[in-house]
């Protein structure tokens, strides 16, 4: 049976691999047997529903054929569990897939030096909610916080835990919280994000010194939010976990994100929406609004509600690209 034979040979060479890095036309992939190889793509891949600038993304599980020179050819993408995108700022309406198949997002934040604004955290949490990916907020640099910062930190813990996010404290400098954080990442693919200067690179290095990311100084350019275009990259953390670093990515875009769906991505609001008098309540100034009442009674934090309003009104859109 000629056909069977051909099929057999094809399968001999076809392997499953994970994409660790994308350098334009070449991809660094890790084959299931643990070896790394470079691969190109064969043919045209399209992602349903969006126009993307990159057909294959970091985190993708792919099928590859490897030739005798150890060059790989990506032939298929295994359907993604999830993926996060960044919308392009120009008019092309194209999106960039930052990463895929993510189990957990870590947002590295700081109370001071630099200050991570709650609005930034909230926008990020709305995004991860919309993608259905759990969020862990890691407050880093706890070694430098004064009494006032610590009080703020305690408040953030209560605000965000009430909002369904997990919180964590670390110091990449003195190692506080690092073993516990590492424990939380076991058997997961975790995407790390954060505003620049928060210590994301230092934290990843503290988790595994072999990763050895470049650590920057907090400079004028950081403060001005210099526009850096770099790509996500995956690293192994031990043998059972992977980290995806997202340098220069401040936040993620939501595709087809309707204003009136926004409250659904605030878990503490979601549970109350049915109790509003009007089914199309925007929770802004409507009578008998369960959300406004919950803000009044302290069940929903004022801080989170203000972020909701600001996002609803698109006040801060430009700050989060
Ligand atoms: P990134 O831009 O988020 O990747 O931040 P970096 O890892 O490059 O760190 C920015 C600056 O913060 C560097 O000067 C680091 O040494 C410093 N840094 C990072 N983590 C900590 C920490 O836990 N405590 C203190 N005091 N400084 C830190
Ligand atoms: Zn309402």
Description of the molecule:
There is one protein chain. The protein has 321 residues and is of the alpha/beta class. Helix content is 26%, strand content 23%. The chain is built from 9 helices and 13 strands. α2 crosses α9 (302-312). Residues 219-228 have low confidence and may be disordered. Zinc ion binds next to α8.
Offer a concise description of the structure:
This protein is an alpha/beta fold and 321 residues long.
The residue ranges in which pLDDT falls below 50 over 5 or more consecutive positions are 219-228
Number of helices: 9
Rg of Cα set:
22 Å
The SSE order reads HEEEEEEEEHEHEHEHHEEHHH
Rounded mean pLDDT is 87
Head-to-tail CA distance between termini: 57 Å
Largest sheet report: 6 strands, mixed
Topology, element by element:
Blueprint (H helix, E strand, L loop, with lengths): L1 H12 E9 L4 E5 L4 E6 L19 E6 L5 E6 L5 E5 L7 E6 L3 E6 L8 H14 L3 E5 L7 H16 L3 E4 L8 H7 L4 E6 L5 H8 L12 H5 L8 E5 L3 E5 L21 H4 L19 H8 L4 H11 L9
The structure holds guanosine-5'-diphosphate and zinc ion.
